[in-house]
Amino acid sequence: MLPECQLFGTLGCHLCEQAEAVVMPLVEHGLLVELMDIADYPEWVEAYGLRIPVLRRVDTGAELDWPFELEQLVWFLRD
């Protein structure tokens, strides 16, 4: 079973759109992804503003920074 994840980004971020395009096909295989807009919370802007997009596993708190490809993503989800 795939872990639940959060994808931190913001509107108008073309890198975030690219990351979403890599992540979303795995939703068909059971991945749960919540899109998190860092603009909603100042602490998220501070933590992720220079790093977005960032994929975070809810179960372990592990984070995968962009750029990542599908193969890296699969390994990240397996750990």
Biggest sheet architecture: 4 strands, mixed
* Separation, N- and C-terminal Cα atoms: 12 Å
* Sheet with the most strands: spatial strand order: 2-1-3-4
Uncertain spans, ≥5 residues at pLDDT below 50? none
Specify the structural class.
alpha+beta
Mean pLDDT: 96
The percent of residues in helical segments reads 25-40%
Number of strands: 4
Coarse morphology: globular
- Count the DSSP helices: 3
Description:
- The chain has 79 residues and is of the alpha+beta class.
- Helices cover 33% and strands 24% of the residues.
- The protein has 3 helices and 4 strands; from the N terminus they run βαβαββα.
- It has helices spanning 14-23, 42-48, 70-78, and strands at 4-9, 32-37, 54-57, 63-65.
- Strands 2-1-3-4 form a 4-stranded mixed β-sheet, covered by helices on one side.
- Strand 1, helix 1 (14-23) and strand 2 (32-37) form a beta-alpha-beta unit.
- The longest helix is centred in the first third of the chain and has 10 residues, at 14-23.
- It is globular and about 35 Å long.
- The mean pLDDT is 96.
